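Anyone up for a design puzzle?
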């Protein structure tokens, strides 16, 4: 094995374009439509998403993948449940202590290369029940909560805008965002919440396609999947199944062979998958 192959893929002096090339075979533009970053374990012919717990296997490269996706988004969609379960979660660019220069590179990439002038909006789907109003993720940035008529009464005196949805769901949130011109939508939600975005997209002539390069299906389904797959036999508590492996390969194609990297907790494979009907 060469010295280059031994070298950790996250080099402090590398450009974001070079790191994207190493991970996915090409530099990455803004997200076009809906994207999701998923860390998964492949078992029994399916992709399962681990629960976020203190002992959950992690990868430094996977954290970079998430930070890179956030840098490419104009809005991040998440849930109140995630905020409750992860009290220290925040959306400032972050990697590890030894990667502070890389964080600054990410910030510059978002502003100078992708042309974003503000932080991504946080769009939070919530029932309103036990919502963590003082969560650190909500500080110092624009946020918008999406809930039902019943849930809005629990969200008084909160420093975020609140939208009432007749039937709250992640698809309803995405439709609302799409109708207001958001075109780079990153999903950070568990498999049970996100599953509707992996269904066949309906043809919806009512959707306003402001960007002719993005078709109407982009308003209804995940078009880009940044998939970090762990191969490990260690016992892991799962949050749920994302997709059967055969369905994944029917719906998505990999843009390159991806990057294989060994961490102490197992062998990881990082791939960028895009929907097969995207040329």
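Challenge accepted. My sequence:
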């Amino acid at each position: 094995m060469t010295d280059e192959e031994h070298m950790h893929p996250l080099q402090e002096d590398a450009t974001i374009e070079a790191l994207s090339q190493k991970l996915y075979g090409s530099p990455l533009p803004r997200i076009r439509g809906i994207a999701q970053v998923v860390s998964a374990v492949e078992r029994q012919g399916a992709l399962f998403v681990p629960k976020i717990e203190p002992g959950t296997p992690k990868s430094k490269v996977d954290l970079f993948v998430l930070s890179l996706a956030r840098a490419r988004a104009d809005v991040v969609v998440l849930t109140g449940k995630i905020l409750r379960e992860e009290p220290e979660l925040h959306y400032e660019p972050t990697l590890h202590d030894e990667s502070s220069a890389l964080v600054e590179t990410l910030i510059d990439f978002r502003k100078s290369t992708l042309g974003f002038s503000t932080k991504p909006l946080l769009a939070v789907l919530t029932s309103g029940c036990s919502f963590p109003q003082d969560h650190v993720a909500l500080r110092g940035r624009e946020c918008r909560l999406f809930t039902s008529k019943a849930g809005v009464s629990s969200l008084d005196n909160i420093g975020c805008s609140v939208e009432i949805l007749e039937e709250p769901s992640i698809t309803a949130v995405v439709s609302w965002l799409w109708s207001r011109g958001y075109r780079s939508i990153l999903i950070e939600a568990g498999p049970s919440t996100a599953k509707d975005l992996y269904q066949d997209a309906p043809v919806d002539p009512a959707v306003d396609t402001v960007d002719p390069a993005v078709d109407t299906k982009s308003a209804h389904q995940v078009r880009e999947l940044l998939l970090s797959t762990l191969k490990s036999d260690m016992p892991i508590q799962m949050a749920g199944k994302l997709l059967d492996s055969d369905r994944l390969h029917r719906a998505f194609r990999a843009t390159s062979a991806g990057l294989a990297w060994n961490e102490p907790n197992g062998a990881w494979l990082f791939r960028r998958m895009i929907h097969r009907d995207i040329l």
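A detail worth pointing out: The first helix runs from residue 3 to 6.
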